[in-house]
């Protein structure tokens, strides 16, 4: 077997499984506020429903890594896919807000576990010398789900009736079932080698660095950068549709398609570039693209310019995000790749959650343009932090682990 291959059977099945599980997530993200209004006859619960998913997701990040170390990524992927199936199906019976909150928390927990476990598995499956490239390819499943999930949901919810929502919930449950089956087939030699690597890494736990809340200090700087960047662009992700409509622009759903196209384009090549030439070659352009995109969005004279800016923002996020994940993994012990992946995902979730909340307040007080410009400034500030801390760190097999 060629040990330098990325596209093994296991890796392909893993990426497809991530696509399916993420699709079930993105089905619900843009429509749960509507469903909450249908069952409660009030629009006051939208923020509670959104927060409940993040509560389950972020809360699990604190222990996901430890669970992966203890029980293995494969078992947890099976568990989380099954849990996602139950959560999606249970939405059919959420006749009151309290039940819907419980099921959204459960769904958040399942997605959180799967993303951590699958990300950890992917980091062991890809060759060490192609880690950036492999992790970039792995996340394409999530990118495609982001582009296709909301569009597919709106195809089902033509009239936003309860019957159509039940159809959506059944579809999501069926997708989780397929993902569960696919994960069952990740049992080739690569999967066995992954299990052996985890056991060897865990066997040396006595000599591992100290941790705080289960996380090694090597993840502090990468997760800080991840949090700040997610915080910077999150108001655009949450409010770009309302912003466009306030300017009189129609079909703003295409903004997310443009964003996903940028994500996909960057992840097809930036990982390979970072592996060969170092992380700096993609990180600095990513920060500049982020600042440029947010500035263009703030002053967009037309919907076309906004779409272009969303593509550039996608290029930014698609470039830096997998590299931050690689930073977290490479700066920690092999036995704690699970906690490193959990730290990375948790920082993204927290940045999006806090950024969208703070962004909403800033928009109310200062308007859209000033808020988006503030995000552009934060991208540049984050670039300075990166320059002063991690800018000379590049991922190569011959390099010693940093941190």
Overall description:
The chain folds into 2 domains: 203 residues, MFS general substrate transporter like domains (Growth Hormone, Chain: A, Up-down Bundle); 181 residues, Growth Hormone, Chain: A (Up-down Bundle). 78% of the residues lie in helices and 1% in strands. The protein is globular and about 55 Å long. Strands 1-2 form a two-stranded antiparallel sheet. The protein is mostly helical and 403 residues long. The longest helix has 30 residues.
Give keywords.
single chain; Growth Hormone, Chain: A; 16 helices; globular; disordered C terminus; mainly alpha; two-stranded antiparallel sheet; 403 residues; 2 domains
The chain-level structural class is: mainly alpha
The CATH architecture of the largest domain can be given as Up-down Bundle
Low-confidence stretches: 188-193, 393-403
Q: What is the CATH class designation of the largest domain?
A: Mainly Alpha
Average pLDDT, to the nearest integer?
Answer: 83
CATH topology of the largest domain: Growth Hormone, Chain: A
Span between N and C termini?
33 Å
The description of the largest β-sheet is: 2 strands, antiparallel
- Sheet-strand content, in percent, reads under 5%
Rough shape? globular
The helicity comes to: over 70%
């Amino acid at each position: 077997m060629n040990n330098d291959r990325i596209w093994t059977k296991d890796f392909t099945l893993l990426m497809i499984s991530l696509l399916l599980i993420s699709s079930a997530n993105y089905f619900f993200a843009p429509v749960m506020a509507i469903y909450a209004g249908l069952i409660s006859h009030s629009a006051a619960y939208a923020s509670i429903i959104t927060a409940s998913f993040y509560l389950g997701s972020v809360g699990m990040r604190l222990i996901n890594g430890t669970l992966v170390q203890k029980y293995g990524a494969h078992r947890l992927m099976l568990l989380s896919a099954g849990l996602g199936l139950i959560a999606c199906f249970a939405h059919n019976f959420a006749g009151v807000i309290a039940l819907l909150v419980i099921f959204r928390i459960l769904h958040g927990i399942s997605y959180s576990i799967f993303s951590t476990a699958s990300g950890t598995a992917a980091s062991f499956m890809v060759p060490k010398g192609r880690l950036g490239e492999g992790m970039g390819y792995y996340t394409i499943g999530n990118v495609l789900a982001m582009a296709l999930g909301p569009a597919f949901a709106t195809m089902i919810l033509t009239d936003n009736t309860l019957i159509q929502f039940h159809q959506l919930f059944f579809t999501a449950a069926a997708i989780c079932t397929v993902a569960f089956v696919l994960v069952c087939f990740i049992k080739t030699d690569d999967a066995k080698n992954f299990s052996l690597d985890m056991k060897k890494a865990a066997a040396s736990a006595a000599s591992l660095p100290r941790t705080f809340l289960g996380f090694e200090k090597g993840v502090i700087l990468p997760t800080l950068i991840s949090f700040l960047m997610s915080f910077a662009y999150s108001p655009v992700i949450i409010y770009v549709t309302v912003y466009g409509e306030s300017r009189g622009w129609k079909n703003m759903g295409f903004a997310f398609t443009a964003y996903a196209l940028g994500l996909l384009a960057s992840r097809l090549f930036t990982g390979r570039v970072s592996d060969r030439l170092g992380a700096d070659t993609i990180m600095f352009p990513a920060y500049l693209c982020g600042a440029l995109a947010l500035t263009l969005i703030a002053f967009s004279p037309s919907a076309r310019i906004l779409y272009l800016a969303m593509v550039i923002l996608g290029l930014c996020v698609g470039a830096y995000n997998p590299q931050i994940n690689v930073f977290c993994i490479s700066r920690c012990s092999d036995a704690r790749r699970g906690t490193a992946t959990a730290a990375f995902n948790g920082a993204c979730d927290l940045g999006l959650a806090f950024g969208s909340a703070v962004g909403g307040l800033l928009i109310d007080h200062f308007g859209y343009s000033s808020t988006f410009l503030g995000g552009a400034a934060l991208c540049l500030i984050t670039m300075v932090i990166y320059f002063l801390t991690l800018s000379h760190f590049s991922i190569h097999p011959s390099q010693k682990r940093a941190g």
